[in-house]
Amino acid sequence: MSTGLFGWELLYGSVERDIRNNEDILVCLTHLVLVSNGFRCIGLGESKNIDGTESKSEALPRGWNEHYAIRYVYQGRLYNFRATPLDDGVMLNLIRVDERSVSLVQLNSRSVASRSGTLDDMIPDNKNIIDMIKKQLIEKVVTSKKSKDMSCQTESQSSTATQSASRLLEDRVTPAARFNPYRPGLSATEPVGRFDPAGVGRNDLDPFAGIDPLRVGPRIVPPGGGGMLFQPPGPSFGGGGHRGLPPGAVPPGARFDPFRPPDAPDRAIPRVPNRPDNDELPPPGYDDMFM
């Protein structure tokens, strides 16, 4: 829509003889704002039908101020304009016929200071009134309700899709922490929240146990290990050695595949001197000549 308003003198000069009161002047101004924004007058009345053969004009038709019912077209759509006189002003309605949407604005008759002269002389506050007519009367019905509904629906679908994508991305982040039914900081017998059957065995598929191997700096190591590797109980574990390994074989904080459960008691039985073990006994029937 255009923002300029031209032609007041020409329009008012063509209808000056028909002017009876201040309401007529306000209706004339409204007509000029409509025409300046692309509307064209096709006659009087309140008919809701057009066939495309109507004559379009920028002038007000004869008898326009008898009932204040004027028909306009804009971008091929029919709009019915109606003005209703009030005690101290006039109420203006614009109806978009195809969507049955209605806008209204109320103007005060006292805003008309004179019935002759320039537009500024006749309506000193004409700029604010013109802006009110554009925003409250025209723009509210020119913008399609269907377009607004579709826009709202599209925004809603886009928001839903974004939330779904965020949830999907969140589910794919840190698989060890996401699918492990046990959380760092707790023992393996203390599940957090609801146990996830789908998470059983997931920890064994992650050799790093949720640790970023490329991370520089201190690392938070979750308990339980991963990839069938044993997580030492403390930083001094490696320094103290391990049964079955020579001292220093396991570096401090290292994770390894143990020979036996780390917390199991040493079940090795010391040998009795001169007592043969099972490997020193001959197999049954070794001296049977018939075997």
UniProtKB/TrEMBL annotation:
InterPro entries: PI31-like (IPR045128), PI31_Prot_N (IPR021625). GO terms for molecular function: endopeptidase inhibitor activity; proteasome binding. The keyword Acetylation does not apply. It comes from the Eukaryota. Keywords: Proteasome. Residues 156-166 have a biased composition (Low complexity). GO terms for biological process: proteasome-mediated ubiquitin-dependent protein catabolic process. One of its GO terms (cellular component) is proteasome complex. Pfam families: PI31_Prot_N. Residues 17-146 form the PI31 proteasome regulator N-terminal domain. The keyword Cytoplasm does not apply. Residues 257-278 have a biased composition (Basic and acidic residues). Residues 145-167, 234-291 are annotated as: Disordered. Belongs to the proteasome inhibitor PI31 family. This is Proteasome inhibitor PI31 subunit. It comes from Callosobruchus maculatus.
